[in-house]
Structure formats: C-alpha cells, structure tokens
Design goal:
The chain is an alpha+beta fold and 74 residues long. The protein has one helix and five strands, in the order H-E-E-E-E-E. It has one domain: Archaeosine Trna-guanine Transglycosylase, Chain: A, domain 4.
Length: 74
C-alpha cells in the first residue's frame, strides 16, 4: 500500500479543523469555516478573511476527504 505525504497532511488538517474568527491572526494559507458558520474563511498569510458568504439560509461545511470547505443550504 502506497501512502503520500500530501494525503496524510490533508487528512490531519480535516481532522483538526476548527472554526476560525474573521480578522484573527493566521500563518500560511488555508481555508476553514468561520465561527458564524455562514462563511468560508481564507488565511491570506496574516489574517483570516471572508472568502465566501453562504447566504441567509446557508452554512459552511467541510466533509472529511474534501480539499476545502464549502457552502450548503439547510
């Protein structure tokens, strides 16, 4: 069985993901769901910013195995 480092890192990232606060400090680049749960956040290397607003009836989700969070309607 062959394992890749990138697959391992992605799986660990998904497992350790937590909601982030828009405007709070971050390092590197990445995506996550915002604390509001109605926005997708992106780290610009310094601060978490809104990448997408999920709308009035939408929520941010990040199912295991997906490379990034996304919006869905409830």
């Amino acid at each position: 069985m062959k394992f890749s480092l990138s697959a391992l890192v992605l799986s660990l990232t998904a497992c350790s993901s937590a909601y982030v606060t828009i405007g709070s400090a971050c390092k590197g680049s990445g995506y996550d769901c915002a604390e509001s749960r109605s926005e997708v956040a992106v780290c610009n290397g310094r601060l978490w910013q809104v990448a997408a607003d999920c709308g009035k009836h939408g929520v941010c989700i990040w199912p295991g195995g997906d490379p990034a969070p996304s919006c869905t309607t409830v």
